[in-house]
Amino acid sequence: MRVTVLAFASLGDALGQQLEVELEAGATVADLLAVLVARRPELGALIGRAAVALNRAIVPAHTTLEAGAEVALLPPVSGG
Amino acid sequence: MGFSAVVETPIEGAAVLATVADPTCGAQVLFLGAVRNHHGGREIAAIDYRAYRPMAEQVLATLVAAAQEQGVRAAIVHRIGRLVPGEVSVAIATASAHRDAAYEMSRILLERLKREAPIWKLEVGVDGAAAWREDEPLVAGSSP
């Protein structure tokens, strides 16, 4: 199945702001992050610091993804 | 429902404050956050604010609703895009019957925005070098 990954701030610069990732059915947020880190090991620390939002709500790593999900990688923030 | 928005145009503080004014409220507080010309010893030429906009809009609406539930009228507007020092990046207006609640809620809303809203600063120095500010781990609204 395919999910859409949106990346922001430093991760957007490093990964591109939007990418499509192919995952096994039943994959979790943690599985997605592992795929991304396997592709770009040098980004492991940045990816590890990011919060993950599924369809615009923050979710824990064990959350199961569905085909077509919009997953956002959100580094520490600095609004205000 | 109170007003909240993520905008790309200059923020008019008085207009944001006007959305919370009410005859039942004897206290109105307007907080304006502005771009500072220095950070960590570095001279700043501009800040480019970026957001995960649909989620940021949802978070601001949730914060305003949380204030209303506590009996404080509230409005929040955050600007994104490239701002120069002195320009207003965020306005928070609160109103309540008496001053304590409006003052206190103004501060609470800003602190929560800084941790819960997916918004980032890209600081551009006077030398042209740009650096992301990634200060606060983003937390869900239900977290303490």
Task: Provide the gyration radius of chain A in Å.
Answer: 12 Å
The coarse overall form of chain A would be globular
- Shape descriptor of chain B reads globular
Mean pLDDT of chain A comes to 97
- Rg calculated over all Cα atoms of chain B: 15 Å
Q: Largest protein interface?
A: A-B, 20 and 31 residues
> How would you sum up the major sheet of chain A?
5 strands, mixed
Sheet with most strands: strand arrangement of chain A: 2-1-5-3-4
What is the number of E strands of chain A? 5
How confident is the prediction overall: mean pLDDT of chain B?
96
Q: How many H/I helical runs of chain A?
A: 3
N-to-C span of chain B: 23 Å
Essential attributes:
heterodimer, A: 80 residues, alpha+beta, five-stranded mixed sheet, 3 helices, 5 strands, globular, B: 144 residues, five-stranded antiparallel sheet, four-stranded mixed sheet, 38% strand
How would you sum up this structure, described in words?
The complex is a heterodimer of chains A (80) and B (144). Chain A has a five-stranded mixed beta sheet with strand order 2-1-5-3-4. Chain A is of the alpha+beta class and 80 residues long. The mean pLDDT of chain A is 97. Chain A is built from three helices and five strands, in the order E-H-E-H-H-E-E-E. Chain A is 30% helix and 28% strand. Chain A starts with a strand and ends in a 6-residue tail after the last strand. Chain B is α+β, with helices and mostly antiparallel strands. Helix content of chain B is 28%, strand content 38%. In chain B, strands 3, 4, 6, 8 and 9 form a five-stranded antiparallel beta sheet that branches. Chain B has a four-stranded mixed beta sheet with strand order 1-5-7-2. In chain B, strand 3 and strand 4 form a beta hairpin. In chain B, helix 2 packs antiparallel against helix 3 (99-116). The two termini of chain B are 23 Å apart. The mean pLDDT of chain B is 96. The interface between A and B is medium-sized, with 20 and 31 residues.
